[in-house]
């Protein structure tokens, strides 16, 4: 809210520090002053009043109270002289106005009103206009301006009605009917509902309670008699109505945060006084006041030891007492360790001892709190395994030449089409269509990254580890890892995966042909002929392979792209950090080379399995070193060549053992009539 | 004494020098002629065996040859050194270095790691929690009641799910505080609870328009320390130490009053600007100070909501944006770069 420096100064006889110095003081002890701007001979301080202090400090008096407490200055209240001088007491407010609050006490905590007759509506004097404009309000006429002026001064929203425009002498506070219409002062039409509080005469609504006045009883240049309302409406009800109608006003903001019900009367008197001052007229004796449950002052005990324990600094009891008193708290009793504090009703935010500690602490100055390391027991923190493995794998991928991306956790309709609709979690209030769903997979956003970077980079190697989301009985989230690389290199992607798994101490990995599973989104993303499902033991942990050409073109990717998509949570569960050293071999190894001609559809694994089956204990490793299916071979055949490494733990292999193994292997391979070992 | 054909030797010297294609072979030729056992040196050495008059003639000849050689040598040396003629085997040292293709970690990972390391060294446990939350943990348990204007500070993404309760994307990492205190984080090793010290990194989401300084998804880090007696003074020390180590600078700090529903008293932690050291610059908008974290003493209602007795326990909590810290550390001026997937940006980080 905007505050006038001159207005704040008017509460003090002593000269305040320069505006920018005052701003610093307020920032350090009260609330952030976001800007100080010169306006004529005044300065405007824009102060970020936080929600807890909106109840009392969206007002110049509230901020002046803070200034006084922080700087230790005495404050004057504006005089209210005229009301005390009412001579004519024959006609009283209650003779002219009947007040009927039809809602529960909690919705309208208080309703006060005064009546004035014979006012002269016109424009306000310059000093009133100046102050309103300084605070960002547009002057209307002296009556409305006076109400607004007092709101800016005290924080109490007020409203004035033209008494002559009421259908009778009755004012009621009630909930609106569903669909009831009201035209507000700025000629907007609103359709209300039964949760919206209104001020009404016997016929229609005159104002939306606590938010905005209606056209019907508007003050105009012919207005003579007025009813001035100063009420206190329930913060929740005002908040609901303000949201329902999408209408936020200076009044609604104040009510939403909770205003002190005891403020209505003094603010009403101040407004009446000001109106008489600037618009003349006669004040009718008395006040209409509906105040069913008077709000009293709370008492809180402040334990000086607790204050010290919480802030970590000793503040003398006398000092604390002085600070609280300067903020208009009353100290009831005082023992050596405790202060019994009475909280003024305008401080509805203060309910606990901790709230009082904050008051003392901030005025005293948080900058005086020293930095002291805690005395705490040494409990070595347990390691977070999820983060440990995440970092571990990220490092491995970085070393392997991949760059890490962070993508948004959302994707749009286009990406959503790759997945089962029922699986997706939709955002109820997306920022835009691009963020309509929570990402079900990391892949779509990674593909977008590839497309985006193709202009600047020839080869792109990316990865992301992050959460994906899916629908279930309860919404599901899990950590995934997606690795992508432009080009087509199935074996390389497998190599990356196996490097990671090896480093994580995971073995028993195998690849299953890609199965078309209806209902599973995966067959849309993957090129089924060129992808595999990755399994560890019986656990399915993800997919590796090429992206479906249609997806590539939809995402405007030039060329091919290979992907690896792994359930990282599962991987972490399987990870094993321990590892055991293998003794170095004591006896030399022998290598035999075997080339076999097999039908094209035979998998390399089929061949190595056969070799392993007969290799016996001396078989140490099988290394594929050549695949050939070109010229010179019968059609539909391919030649696979292996180094087979033989080694015994306890002796040097004899030539007999080696040739024996070799012939066993050849025999096994040629067991299939279609297979032919090349000699 | 054999005859010496002066001209022949000169021819020989000439062609030998011209044949030298680098300084090494030139040196070798020099040794062949004027080295210890060089041809010209030997002529000199033999002089003493000659009769006097012959000695004079030979001596003159030897001097002449030596001069011839030296002049030729100097010329050739200069020519080779000047690079007129270069060995065919010599490498071109100006060749551009071949790039070793290493990958790059994202700056948010680097900053998050660094922060985790520093806090872990001070005994903090790193804890994570779910990104999809319910209203209880995101708001109510943190003393942010329904229908309270304080809730407006957190613009929220709401989700359509099959769950009976309303689900949302967490607007801060603070729900993990409550989950931790209630021991509702699955898979976490149980430690005495409290006292404890934790930090919570993770994604948070705000339903707001983006610009260079605002983003609807950021990474946040939350800290919480609870014990019988931990004070605001302890907070100043621990968090001050963190920032000093993080920025490797002896920065100064200040606490300003602020309001958060889950802490009382609440602070705003400011630090002298890491760029201008408090003089005022673009980064700190001439203020000399940077706001780096929101913090405060845990509100008694938050303890109560998590089943801890606020009379028995007290503590402090803080939160800061990892994105913002990374921006300060590396001088990044647009928060949206982090999630742009732009490798020209990411590949600058190691």
Oligomer state of the chains in this structure? heterodimer
Strand content of chain A: 25-35%
Mean pLDDT value of chain A: 92
How many H/I helices of chain B? 11
**Low-confidence blocks of residues of chain B:** none
Strand % of chain B is 15-25%
List keywords for this structure.
heterodimer, A: 679 residues, alpha+beta, 5-stranded mixed β-sheet, 22 helices, 32 strands, elongated, B: 350 residues, 3-stranded antiparallel β-sheet, 11 helices, 10 strands, 36% helix, 19% strand
Overview of this protein structure:
The complex is a heterodimer of chains A (679) and B (350). By secondary structure, chain A is of the alpha+beta class. Chain A is 31% helix and 27% strand. In chain A, the strands form 8 sheets. A 7-stranded mixed beta sheet of chain A has the order 19-23-24-28-27-26-25, with helices on both faces. A 5-stranded mixed beta sheet of chain A has the order 4-7-10-11-12. In chain A, helix 6 packs across helix 7. The longest helix of chain A has 17 residues, at 263-279. Chain B is an alpha+beta fold and 350 residues long. Chain B contains 11 helices and 10 strands. Chain B has helices spanning 6-19, 23-34, 39-46, 52-81, 107-121, 135-138, 175-181, 232-247, 300-305, 322-330, 343-346, and strands at residues 125-126, 132-134, 158-160, 167-169, 196-205, 217-227, 253-260, 263-272, 289-298, 314-321. In chain B, strands 1-5-6-10-9-8-7 form a 7-stranded mixed beta sheet. A 3-stranded antiparallel beta sheet of chain B has the order 2-4-3. In chain B, helix 2 packs antiparallel against helix 4 and helix 5 (107-121) packs across helix 10. The longest helix of chain B is centred in the first third of the chain and has 30 residues, at 52-81.
């Amino acid at each position: 809210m905007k505050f006038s420096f001159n207005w704040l100064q008017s509460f003090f006889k002593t000269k305040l520090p320069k505006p920018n110095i005052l701003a610093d003081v307020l920032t350090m002890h009260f609330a952030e002053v976001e800007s100080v701007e010169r306006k004529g001979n005044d300065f405007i301080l824009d102060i970020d009043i936080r929600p807890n202090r909106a109840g009392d400090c969206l007002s110049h008096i509230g901020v002046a109270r803070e200034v006084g407490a922080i700087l230790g200055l005495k404050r004057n209240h504006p005089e209210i002289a005229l009301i005390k001088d009412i001579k004519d007491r024959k006609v009283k407010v209650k003779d002219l106005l009947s007040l009927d609050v039809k809602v529960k006490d909690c919705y309208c905590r208080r309703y006060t009103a005064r009546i004035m007759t014979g006012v002269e509506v016109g424009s306000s004097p310059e000093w009133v206009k100046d102050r309103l404009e300084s605070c960002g309000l547009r002057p209307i006429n002296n009556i409305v301006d006076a109400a607004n002026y007092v709101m800016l001064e005290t924080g109490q929203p007020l409203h004035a009605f033209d008494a002559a425009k009421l259908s009778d002498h009755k004012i009621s506070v009630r909930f609106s009917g569903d669909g009831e219409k009201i035209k507000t002062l700025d000629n907007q039409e609103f359709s209300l509902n039964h949760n919206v509080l209104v001020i009404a005469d016997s016929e229609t609504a005159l104002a939306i309670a606590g938010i905005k006045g209606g056209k019907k009883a508007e003050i105009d240049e012919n207005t003579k008699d007025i009813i001035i309302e100063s009420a206190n409406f329930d913060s929740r009800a005002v908040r609901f109505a303000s949201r329902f109608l999408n209408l936020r006003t200076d009044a609604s903001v104040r009510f939403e945060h909770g205003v002190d019900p005891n403020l209505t009367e003094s603010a009403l008197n101040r407004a009446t006084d000001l109106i008489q001052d600037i618009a003349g007229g006669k004040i009718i004796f008395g006040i209409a006041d509906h105040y069913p449950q008077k709000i009293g002052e709370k008492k809180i005990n402040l334990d000086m030891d607790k204050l010290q324990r919480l802030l970590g600094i000793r503040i003398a009891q006398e000092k604390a007492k002085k600070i609280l008193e300067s903020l208009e708290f009353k100290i009831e009793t005082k023992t050596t360790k405790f202060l019994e504090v009475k909280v003024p009703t305008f401080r509805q935010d203060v309910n606990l001892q901790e709230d009082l500690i904050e008051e003392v602490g901030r005025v005293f100055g948080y900058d005086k709190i020293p930095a002291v390391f805690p005395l705490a027991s040494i409990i070595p923190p347990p390691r977070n395994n999820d983060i440990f493995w995440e970092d571990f794998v990220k490092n491995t991928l970085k070393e392997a030449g991949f760059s890490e991306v962070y993508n948004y956790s959302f994707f749009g309709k286009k990406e959503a089409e790759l997945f089962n609709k029922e699986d997706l979690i939709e955002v109820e209030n997306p920022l835009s269509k691009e963020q309509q769903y929570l990402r079900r997979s990391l892949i779509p956003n990674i593909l977008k990254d590839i497309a985006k970077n193709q202009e600047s980079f020839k080869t792109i190697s990316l990865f992301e580890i992050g959460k994906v989301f899916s629908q279930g009985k309860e919404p599901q989230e899990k950590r995934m890892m997606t690795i992508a690389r432009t080009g087509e290199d199935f074996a390389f992607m497998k190599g990356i995966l196996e490097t990671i798994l090896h480093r994580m101490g995971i073995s028993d990995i195998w690849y299953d042909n890609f199965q078309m599973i209806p209902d599973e989104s995966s067959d849309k993303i993957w090129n089924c002929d060129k992808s595999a499902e990755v399994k560890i033991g019986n656990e399915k942990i993800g997919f590796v392979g090429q992206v479906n050409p249609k997806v590539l073109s939809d995402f405007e990717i030039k060329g091919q792209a290979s992907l690896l998509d792994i359930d990282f949570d599962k991987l972490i569960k399987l990870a094993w950090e321990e590892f055991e050293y293998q003794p170095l071999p004591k006896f030399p190894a022998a290598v035999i080379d075997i080339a076999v001609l097999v039908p094209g559809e035979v998998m390399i694994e089929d061949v190595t399995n056969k070799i392993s089956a007969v290799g016996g204990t001396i078989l140490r490793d099988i290394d594929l070193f050549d695949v050939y299916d070109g010229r010179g071979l019968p059609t539909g055949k391919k030649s696979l060549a292996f180094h087979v490494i033989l080694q015994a733990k306890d002796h040097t292999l004899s030539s007999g053992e080696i040739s024996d193994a070799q012939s066993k292997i050849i025999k096994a391979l040629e067991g299939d009539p279609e297979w032919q070992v090349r000699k | 004494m054999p005859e010496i054909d002066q001209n022949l030797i000169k021819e020989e010297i000439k062609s030998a020098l011209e044949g030298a294609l680098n300084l090494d072979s030139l040196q070798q030729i020099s040794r062949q002629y004027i080295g210890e056992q060089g041809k010209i040196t030997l002529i000199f050495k033999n002089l003493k065996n000659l009769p006097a008059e012959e000695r004079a003639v030979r001596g003159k000849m030897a001097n002449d040859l030596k001069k011839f050689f030296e002049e030729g040598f100097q010329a050739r040396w200069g020519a080779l050194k000047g690079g007129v003629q270069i060995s065919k085997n010599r490498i071109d040292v100006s060749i551009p270095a071949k790039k070793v293709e290493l990958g790059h970690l994202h700056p948010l990972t680097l900053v998050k790691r660094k922060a985790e390391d520093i806090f872990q060294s001070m005994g903090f446990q790193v804890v994570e929690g779910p990104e999809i939350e319910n209203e209880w943990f995101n708001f109510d348990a943190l003393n942010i009641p329904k229908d309270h204007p304080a809730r407006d500070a957190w613009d929220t993404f709401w989700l359509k799910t099959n769950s009976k309760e309303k689900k949302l994307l967490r607007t801060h990492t603070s729900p993990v505080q409550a989950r931790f205190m209630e021991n509702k984080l699955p898979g976490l090793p149980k430690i005495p609870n409290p006292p404890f010290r934790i930090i919570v990194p993770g994604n948070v989401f705000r339903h707001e328009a983006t610009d260079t300084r605002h983003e609807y998804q950021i990474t946040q880090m939350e800290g919480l320390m609870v014990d019988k007696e931990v004070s605001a003074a302890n907070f100043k020390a621990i968090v001050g130490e963190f920032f000093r180590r993080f920025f490797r600078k002896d920065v100064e700090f200040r606490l300003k009053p602020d309001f958060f529903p889950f802490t009382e008293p609440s602070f705003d932690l400011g630090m002298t600007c890491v760029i201008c050291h408090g003089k005022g610059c673009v980064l700190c908008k001439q203020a000399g100070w940077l706001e780096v974290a929101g913090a405060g003493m845990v509100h008694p209602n938050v303890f109560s909501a998590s089943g801890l007795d606020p009379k028995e326990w007290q503590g402090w909590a803080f939160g800061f944006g990892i994105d913002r810290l990374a921006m300060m550390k590396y001088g990044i001026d647009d928060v949206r770069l982090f999630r742009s997937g732009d490798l020209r940006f990411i590949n600058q980080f190691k």
